[in-house]
Write a structure and sequence with these properties.
230 residues; alpha/beta; 29% strand
């Protein structure tokens, strides 16, 4: 792929390094917008679709290509397959520069549905090494590796991570990050159901309010700041 398209990707948040959303140390992109409304979604702020074009794919590729020591990129959200064409372009352009990087994505849709989906959705599947599929179901919440409920499955779509399915299926935990602005953010899949509601309740009891900062996800606006993401 050698063209110079300037597709925009609607992005809720990015993280340079994460060890709890896929194998190894990974960059993460949370896309903005999801057609599903899973009850108990821990990243509810990523559900609405926005009218803005979002960030140029070329800028995201430059950012990813410059990150040293990462094993790959994880696509979360939101629903990545709702912006499949832009993500296909992103992965193609990234692999021109960093062919060693792997790709993993989350989707609320089942793998068979995606295989019958649009040309863009099928093309995105073809570029993934790992997929976690299925909607989050609060009644089936479990402490599982990289996912929140027992109906969700990890699919090794290439041989690269075929051994992942034989590894212990226990939760990877949450990762806290501190930004230069003092914001404390977390990423990962909570081990217990109702994590977000309980977090908000406890913050409110201490006089803090969790609210969304444009371009950065939800944040607690009294120091220290707090952001979240799955």
């Amino acid at each position: 792929m050698n063209d110079h398209r300037t597709t925009g990707l609607s992005v809720a948040r990015t993280l340079e390094r994460c060890t709890v959303l896929g194998p190894g140390e990974r960059a993460v992109i949370w896309v903005q917008g999801c057609p599903l409304r899973c009850r108990g979604c821990v990243a509810a702020e990523t559900l609405p679709f926005t009218a803005e074009q979002g960030r140029p794919v070329a800028d995201l590729v430059d950012w990813l290509a410059a990150l040293p020591g990462i094993e790959g990129v994880t696509l979360s959200g939101g629903e990545p397959f709702a912006q499949a064409e832009a993500l296909v372009e992103l992965l193609d352009r990234l692999r021109e520069r960093r062919p060693e990087l792997s790709a993993m994505a989350y989707s609320g849709f089942r793998l068979p549905v995606l295989r019958r989906g649009t040309a863009g959705q099928r093309a995105l599947l073809d570029r993934l090494d790992l997929l976690v599929d299925g909607p989050y179901v609060a009644a089936l919440h479990a402490d599982l590796r990289w996912r929140g409920s027992s109906n969700q499955r990890i699919h090794a779509l290439t041989p690269r991570y075929a051994g992942v399915l034989a590894e212990p299926d226990t939760g990877a935990g949450l990762q806290l990050s501190v930004g230069l602005d003092g914001a404390v953010s977390w990423a990962g899949v909570p081990a217990v159901p109702g994590f977000r509601a309980e977090l908000e309740r406890r913050l409110a009891a201490d006089g803090f309010e969790l609210r969304t900062v444009p371009g950065h996800g939800p944040s607690q606006q009294s120091a220290p700041h707090l952001q979240e993401g799955t």
